[in-house]
Amino acid sequence: xxxxxxxxxxxxxxxxxxxxxxxxxxxxxxxxxxxxxxxxxxxxxxxxxxxxxxxxxxxxxxxxxxxxxxxxxxxxxxxxxxxxxxxxxxxxxxxxxxxxxxxxxxxxxxxxxxxxxxxxxxxxxxxxxxxxxxxxxxxxxxxxxxxxxxxxxxxxxxxxxxxxxxxxxxxxxxxxxxxxxxxxxxxxxxxxxxxxxxxxxxxxxxxxxxxxxxxxxxxxxxxxxxxxxxxxxxxxxxxxxxxxxxxxxxxxxxxxxxxxxxxxxxxxxxxxxxxxxxxxx
Length: 281
What we know:
Layout: E1 3-7, H1 12-29, E2 42-47, E3 70-71, H2 74-77, E4 83-86, H3 93-103, E5 107-109, H4 116-125, E6 130-133, H5 139-155, E7 160-167, H6 177-189, H7 194-197, E8 198-199, E9 214-220, E10 226-234, E11 237-245, H8 249-262, E12 268-270, H9 272-275
Parallel strand pairs: 1-2, 1-4, 2-3, 4-5, 5-6, 6-12, 7-9, 8-9
Antiparallel strand pairs: 7-10, 10-11
Helix pairs in contact: 1-8, 3-4, 5-6
């Protein structure tokens, strides 16, 4: 069974990935329609911060032990791995990518909020290993992104664009990586860079809306799993494309699917649209 190393095993997504793998294992023991979609992956390594009290203990925070001990060494976590999933913190993404490059292990990056220097390191690593950057591992969001590009081209620049997103109170980055990715799709479809047209702050007297700008609005409250809406507005009409997540497990299942897809791919930079066969973005 191909091994999956999880960077950030003690976090919400790390434990959700473990549950997703166990779901597949249970489906395989009792055949159901879902068993046909099994990734075939099994947990092979688990990484946490050196300061974590879980280092040296089993990867499962609850339930049946996995037999995999948590380590603080990314190279050790990659022992026996066919692919790695990055769900730790932005500051560690570059270092973990370096370990995957050293071991020639494909890497799925689900962590968001990393800087331009880290992204450059990921692009460089993709010259030698397959790297899949997925700000959102929901298959529904991947389809939303695909539809968004078509809508932007069809509607033209006569429509104003606003992107709103909502997440739980503990989310670190704002706007979300998914919201920014959606903004880039709109901007690029219009032949611009997001940096040129994004408006992140509105306060006080700002004057009329700038032509071609893309506005962002953020909510951080309670236990909201994730909501994203892209609104196109013109005189007399408004089109809204929305994705709402109500169960964090959907991201884990999408991540496991994407990680399994990455195994055996040639070096390169990939996205969820590649996993679903939706064409280039």
